[in-house]
Design brief:
The complex is a heterodimer.
Chain A: E1 6-11, E2 14-19, E3 23-27, E4 33-36, E5 40-42, E6 45-50, H1 60-65, E7 72-76, E8 79-83
Parallel strand pairs in A: 2-8
Antiparallel strand pairs in A: 1-2, 1-6, 3-4, 4-5, 7-8
Chain B: E1 7-15, E2 18-23, E3 27-32, E4 46-52, E5 55-61, H1 62-66, E6 78-84, E7 91-97, E8 99-107, E9 112-113, E10 119-125, E11 128-133
Parallel strand pairs in B: 2-11, 5-7
Antiparallel strand pairs in B: 1-2, 1-8, 3-6, 4-5, 6-7, 9-10, 10-11
């Protein structure tokens, strides 16, 4: 996967994006999983890989009402998404976290 | 927002059992309520994310923001797209409200200043008492 690409997946009804260069493996099937070097992220659906995000807005307002750091917000196919920081994944997205 | 002289134009919004006034210069657009996707783990003020003009838009529940109690079911709920944050780093946010009520001119001397929070002042209007919002106080630095 190229350095600027993002892996898109759906979880909890939301669309999420991860920088693809941090993804070490993807397991498809009825319970898809995304593996990073330090975490495993279950997904409801692997949406695909986006070569380049058109827009990533800093999300200062989001930070006031959502407790997890993120790279920003983007849109893919008219759907809003959160662009995650691989080193600071929300615990609720990670396997084995409460 | 309440400092200065003269009359400013405000958009009056119904939110639950309250009225809120937003400086008209900060309003970019009033839309029929945008569909939102809730974010897990978000505070109740954050209704979710929406798409607006190809850009992501966090949408906040105005009634939750000002602590309003639920009002009658809205007949024409709206999303008001507004500029928030400091003028050096403005950011677009959606405010989900029960209705856009009116556009009014409010003389500065009629405003009763309040605390340092989102509600910067209060004003008595024919439509009722309105809370004047200072949207520059909405984001975190």
């Amino acid at each position: 996967m190229s350095g600027g690409a993002y892996l898109l997946f759906r979880r909890f009804g939301c669309l999420w994006a991860l920088p693809a260069k941090h993804v070490t493996a993807i397991f498809s099937g009825p319970k898809p999983e995304i593996h990073l070097s330090h975490a495993t992220v279950p997904a409801d659906e692997i949406v695909g890989v986006c070569a380049e995000l058109q827009r990533v807005n800093p999300a200062r307002t989001l930070g006031a009402f959502w407790p997890y750091p993120c790279q920003g917000l983007g849109v893919f196919a008219k759907e809003p998404m959160v662009v995650l920081l691989p080193d600071a994944l929300p615990p609720l997205l990670c396997k084995g976290e409460p | 927002m309440v400092a200065g002289t003269g009359t400013r134009r405000f958009l009056l919004l119904a939110a639950g059992d309250r009225l809120a006034a937003v400086d008209a210069r900060q309003v970019r657009r009033i839309l029929r309520a945008l569909p939102t996707v809730p974010l897990p783990g978000a505070q109740p003020e954050l209704l979710g994310l929406a798409e607006y003009g190809g850009e992501p838009l966090p949408v906040l529940d105005l009634a939750q923001l000002i602590g309003a109690k639920p009002g009658p079911s809205p007949t024409f709920p709206v999303t008001v797209v507004v500029w928030v944050g400091p003028s050096s780093q403005p950011e677009l946010v959606g405010l989900a409200a029960d209705a856009a009520v009116d556009l009014v001119g409010i003389p500065q001397e009629h405003v009763v200043p309040m605390g340092e929070g989102l509600v910067a002042g209060e004003v008595a209007l024919p439509q009722g008492t309105a809370e004047i919002l200072d949207l520059s106080r909405l984001t975190v630095s």
